[in-house]
Amino acid sequence: MDNVHRRAQPVHLTTPVTALAYHDNDILLSGQGPYLKATLISTAETLGCIHLGQDWKIHRIVIANVQRITDSIEARLFMVFGAKSLRVLRLCVDRSLGNNSPSARFQHLWNITHFKDWIVDAQWLWNKADLPGEHPTTRPSLRPPVTASPTHIAIGYAHNFVEVYKLPQDPFTNAMETSDKLRTDDDLSSLTIVYSVQSEEHCTLFCGRFHNNTLEDLWFASGTVFCHALLWKVYHEGGIEAPVVKSLIGHEGILFGIRWSDDGKAVCTVSDDRSIRIWDITHSTNITHTTHFGHTARVWDCQIVGPYLISISEDASCRVWRNPLLANAAETDDASDCLACWEGHEGKSAWGVAVSDHGVVATGGGDGGIHLWRLDSIVAGTTDAEQNTQDVDLPAILTYFPDATDNDKEFVRDFVITSQEQSVYSTNTGYILVRDDEKESWNTLFHSPILKNYSSLEASACGRVVVAGSLSGRLVIVSVTNEFEPLIAETLGGIKIQFVFVLNGADRDNFRIVVFRANCTVGVFNLTISTGTSVATCTHIGDLKLPNNNKAIHAAYFSPRYNLILLGSRDSTVLVYNLSQLNGDNDTSTPLDSIVDLKRCHGSETVSSILMVTEEGEGLDGKDRISVYSTGRDGSWTKYRFLGLPGGETIGSTSSADEDVDMGDSDDDGDDRSEIRGKSALQRRQESSLDERESGTTIVLQKIFRSKITRGWLEQVFIMDGELLLLGFFNKKLFVYNESKHFEIFSMHSGAANRRRWRFLTNNARLEHTRLMYHSGYKLRSFARQLTAGSELFKSAKLQNNFHGREVRQMRFLPDAQPLVGGAPAPIIFASGGEDCRLRMFQYIPYKTKNSCTALRPLCNLKPSVGSTLRCLEWSKTSDPHSYLLFTGGAVESMRAWQVGLSIPNSYQVEMIEDHAGNKIPEHTPLSLGCLELAQCPHASENMETRIMDLSVFKLDGHPGKHFVVAVYSDAAIRVWLFDEVVNSFVLAIDASHHAKCILQVSHLSLEGGGVLMFTAATDGKIAIWDITGALDRFLEVYNTDEIRITRAMSSSSSSVGRESKRARRDHVQTLGKPAAEVSVHMSGVNGLYVQDMGVDGIVAVSGGDDNALSVTRIKAVWDAKLRTVKVSSAKVVHRNAYAHGSAIQAVVMINKAEIVTTSQDQMLTVWELKPLEDGGADVQMIETQFIHVPDPSTMDTTVMGEDQRSLVAIAGIGVQFFDIKPVQE
User: 745 or 867, which is more confident?
Assistant: First the structure.
């Protein structure tokens, strides 16, 4: 190696967030593995980050008091502990920068390791005289400020005993300039034990908590493995064992968490039995408790915060409950009601929770994310309760209808919300009334007999115009602001108007009115308000022709820019009409045909809303990107791309900058002919020419993806502040889901989801000002939410982006990614999949700045199907340098092809930024990534439970657009599939078998000249080497002349694109005989396999197995160009280290021809040096080994970065960790 070795430096870690604590209302401290971070919650800026050591995992952060240094500088003393180690630190915050973000840095004071037992809690202790207030508590906000320094710390251990240590000196006397580097020379001898006590009940604890901050008043609550809690006073003069004062019995499982109330009068416990119990311990003998059930898995923690209980659970949710111990709780119907369920974390477990004095709840998840929630949102109405609603009753009928008689039955026929302060109602007697909801005053807008006994009401989005449809087929148009006189317009005499849609027109005084009549006809009208004349005119533009299915229209949208009307029907059809075809001399009496008729958009369910969005200049070649969104009563939303509109992207273009989405499970059956999973550029060009030839139009509505959000209904889609919001119903509960940030932002019981039984209005993505009205039985209820500007304490609900919520099974870096703009570094992108059934893609940002650490920027979040674990994935290049193919495989024999495109805004310019060392470096380009599913591979196995265990992908010279995917299966099958870009389909090329057991690994090696070797490894510990060159040649010879394929490639029928038969075609399938060679390398399963061409030294296959061994196999192979075969002359194990790791090796990579990196279940990363020997053998020596902070590591990959081509290694399992392996001269 020319005296060069490498050292693996950990550079990034995303693992479960296990500890959270607030420094103040602005700065949150978080613990993630060995990393301690301070974050400004208002902007999500990282103020400081420190690494505590390789053997650290932070379990809890315990804060002390604040020392004021100057008017703008403060210091917070705190300690962190994990396992048997504890560290005392200080956070110094400087706020002298004015309106800019404060600066912060950590300082180490003491590092104490090797405590005698596992630490379950720690507490700061003061002299009693130094604590102001009659009842010192653990919550600093509830007592006067403490100016004195703590003198002792108490440690509670897992075997139910406590030790109290005296601090060696006043912590605040340490100079502020103390180094922030790690201190490792301190040990237990620097602290003095002044008191030690064992509880009289000797048992093992899973949790424990102290109460109070003086030794004389110190209590300890022990949560035992015997399902009960013990409360005992620490300071006991009677002996070395302290008596248990109170025993709390009731749980049916191990206690995982225990908390005191701030006043010490109550204790909250959580357990393996999924319950939360609140114990009133004010009475010495009569201890009562309430029990709360609601979490669907084990509960980890619960805090008592004033009127609320805040709990976190293994089900990854945070729930807010009413505190049953408060006096006013008895006034409610159900004191154990869950007020809110916040679901933002993915996968399993929310591990940490903290609450600021301003009521901001921070939760840390097992997915590595940190979410922020607001308690004031519960007060404002983001709850499942209805206590903040009020009944809306019509005024006495004689106040607006003096001639009313006893026979006139009056009630609300329909209603709309026109603003945050105003609503409009149509009544049974034909009145249209407007209500000032703040003053609760009523006025009459209009009265006519034509609205008696029936009316269908709708308002414009601006709230200025209200339109009522009548039983006689006439429209009543009124101005809420009295801009014009009421107007009555004829539509189609005598035909009842069932639905009315009032859509924005070309300007603020122009509207399109779409009516759906009872005879299943649709009319379009133009409403124009003449400015300054108090006159409005309504003209009939024309009728729209519907398919012959007599289904109602439930959604409509008008695009003034393109003069298009989009309709959504009850039979799940989206229809598009070009109103420009009605201009000129066209006869408006003839219904207008649709230009797009897209069926089964939401299975067989109703299309409930449609939205069209134009992003100017953001498409390919600077054209407009035009998207259409729809929601349906199947619980899903769908996104389409409009191609061929004026100024927009054309049909032959490929735009790939789609935002981050979740793709839900599809309920579409095999006969769904509207779903277009993707088309190649060639296919689109062929389709374009065919459309021009046959129909004279080039407009195409292309389906991009579909995502299922709920098992109930989705009723509305809207975009606010750049965020996609979805409104829906489930179990009679109305909810608003923020799809951009993946959490439910609003929910309330509101009855059924009938279109005419509810109305909703909001002003921004945070729903600060929200109105909801709905029928509840025979009552009309109104809810108003008004959040003040001061309650908006943070911009984003995601303080830290998450990774996967469960174990990652495979991750792969995008190979040879090219910069998207001159001067920018090549982006570092990887894809990952795992047990959470999600396919995710991230951009890795490898540098630190003043306000940020290395980071993973999420690009894509897809869920191809429910219950199908993603076990393997591989990339493949296309002719476009910024477009790639990604192949994924996993459970139920599921394999898919995805088109992944990278893009940036056309106006983007590379910026130079300053890293943490002060160096000017180019910024890593903020990418947009589009991921489009092209095809799903048909099944080839008889057993549907067969799993695809691994993939390997390659291309052959001279065959552009053809990608060969080698897949190995749990039933020992080996199959090579051809994916053809022209037709976007999989064709089975080779089907073979040899191993008697499940195949775990597959790899390939393309030789110069065209030969291809395949390597398979199974649970029997053997590696088989195959020459598949001849089989590929025979397959291609037949495939290239296949008439079915040629016809399919030239076909422009969108119904066949991307659709596969359920069973694989075997027209051209080839078989393989015996492998060219086979070698036994492990005693059991081969979990890691990496093949490297060593040039003159032959081929090396490095493997790691369940037997903890690392093996190196050397293969000698010669390519015969004339016969087009690869002759394998020998294959033998040249090195085997039986004790390479302490447990099963999970993954193996080679970062060059001389270095191997391995990882195993013992959470160790090891770098090895490989030296071929002259006698054909090999020598492998360990260079270094270090601990990794990723539990259950299962996959590893490597790429190169930077001008010096450093190796970047990533290891993933429950989380992901990156290592920068730099060459260092000896």
Answer: 745
d(CA 662, CA 647) in angstroms, rounded, equals 29
* pLDDT at 1049 > cutoff 70: no
- Cα separation of 764 and 606, whole Å? 27
The pLDDT score that the predictor gives to residue 144 is 61
How many helices (H) and strands (E) in the chain? 4, 87
- 710-723 b/e (C-beta count within 10 Å ≥ 16 → b): bebbbbbbbeeeee
- What is the homologous superfamily of the domain 412-544 according to CATH? YVTN repeat-like/Quinoprotein amine dehydrogenase (2.130.10.10)
pLDDT of residue 174: 63
Q: Which residue has the tokens 């902007």?
A: 43
Residue 318: closest CA among 292, 289, 349: 349
pLDDT tens string 37-88: 999 998 888 888 888 887 789 999 999 877 777 777 888 899 999 999 999 9
pTM: 0.73
Q: What is the pLDDT of residue 697?
A: 47
3-state SS class at 1150: strand
CA dist., res. 1062 & res. 1042, Å (int): 20
DSSP line for 149-205 = PP-EEEEEETTSEEEEEE-SS-GGGS-TT---S---S--GGGSEEEEEEEESS---E
CA distance 606 to 567: 11
Partners of residue 537 on adjacent β-strands: 528
**Which residue, 1104, 1079, 1098, 1091, is CA-closest to 1162?**
1104
User: What is the Cα–Cα distance from 676 to 657, expressed in whole angstroms?
Assistant: 18
Kindly list the domain boundaries of the chain, sorted by start residue: 412-544, 801-806+815-936
Who wins on pLDDT, 335 or 629?
Answer: 629
- What percentage of the chain has pLDDT greater than the value 90? 49
Of 32, 37, 28, residue with least CA distance to 16: 32
Q: Hey, what are 428's tokens? A: 């049974």
Half-sphere exposure at residue 953, Cβ-oriented, CA atoms within 13 angstroms = 24
Residue pair 1013/1004 in contact (Cβ under 8 Å)? The answer is: yes
Q: Which helix (H) or strand (E) holds 276?
A: strand 275-280
Choose the weakest-confidence range: 526-540, 790-804, 1043-1057, 1064-1078.
Answer: 1043-1057
Q: What radius of gyration, in Å, describes the C-alpha atoms of the chain?
A: 34
Instruction: Report yes or no: 188 and 112 within 8 Å, Cβ to Cβ.
Output: yes
pLDDT digits (tens, 9 = 90+) for 762-800: 988 778 788 999 887 778 888 887 765 444 455 567 888
Closest CA to 61 of 86, 41, 25, 40: 86
Which of 60, 13, 23 has the alpha carbon at shortest distance from 352? 60
| Closest to 1089 (Cα-Cα) out of 1115, 1063, 1064 | 1115
Task: With H, G, I as helix, E, B as strand and everything else as coil, classify residue 1037.
Answer: helix
d(CA 47, CA 28): 10
Distances (CA, A) of 813 to 22, 841, 901, 1163: 36, 10, 15, 21
